[in-house]
Amino acid sequence: MKLLAVTVSIGAAMLVMATAPSYAAGGDAIFKKSCASCHYTDGPAKEKTIADQLAKKGPELWYAGSKFQKAWLGAWLQDPKPIRPLKYNSLTDKNKGDHPKSSAGDAAALTDYLMGLTSPEVKAGVIKPAATPQAKQIFNKKMPCGGCHATEKGGGLSGPSLVGAAKRLNPDWVYAYLANIKHFKPVRDMPDFGSVLNPKDLEAVAAYVATFE
């Protein structure tokens, strides 16, 4: 009888394991099943032509761990809100906000996986949040970023919103992106500010973006 009880217990445990939530699998497996049809994670950047860019259904994520903040990413995957006012790759169609939601377990596994995808171009600890007059002048007048990106004070619709950037984006990535955008996005609408602004100006802008609530 004891042997039978042990056998039944083991069988029940195996059944529980077999029917456990999908987050029991690794985040990479969840990504391949649920996310890979719209996003790719095997960098570096693959796009070489406008046609390559237009063929994409969603942003590349091969440097997600350098770009995003972990706490924000985990929460967003469970309750995704539009970051882009317009549909990806469109200048006319509104973003419907229909990104699939992940369970808490799946979101945790996906977050761990995505945060492991980093770029050596992003150096840690370079940028500290700061809103200097110099940065505001460059952001609002010299670049000007508000033509494409929304902030709490308004702005454009064609690029991702920067509202909440303080919690969403890693400021070190913002600087690296501005300084060497070709590494991350060889085909894009955004100008190459790294070729026209000096590193100190770019650092100031990245630090300013890191204050956006």
Provide a descriptive summary of the structure in words:
This protein has 213 residues and is mostly helical. The protein has two domains: 25-115, Cytochrome Bc1 Complex, Chain D, domain 2, CATH 1.10.760; 133-209, Cytochrome Bc1 Complex, Chain D, domain 2, CATH 1.10.760.10. 44% of the residues lie in helices and 2% in strands. It contains eleven helices and two strands. It has helices spanning 2-18, 27-34, 50-54, 64-67, 70-78, 104-115, 133-142, 165-168, 171-179, 181-184, 199-209, and strands at 150-151, 154-155. The chain has a two-stranded antiparallel sheet. A hairpin with a 2-residue loop joins strand 1 (150-151) and strand 2. Helix 2 crosses helix 6 (104-115). The longest helix has 17 residues, at 2-18. The radius of gyration is 21 Å and the shape is globular.
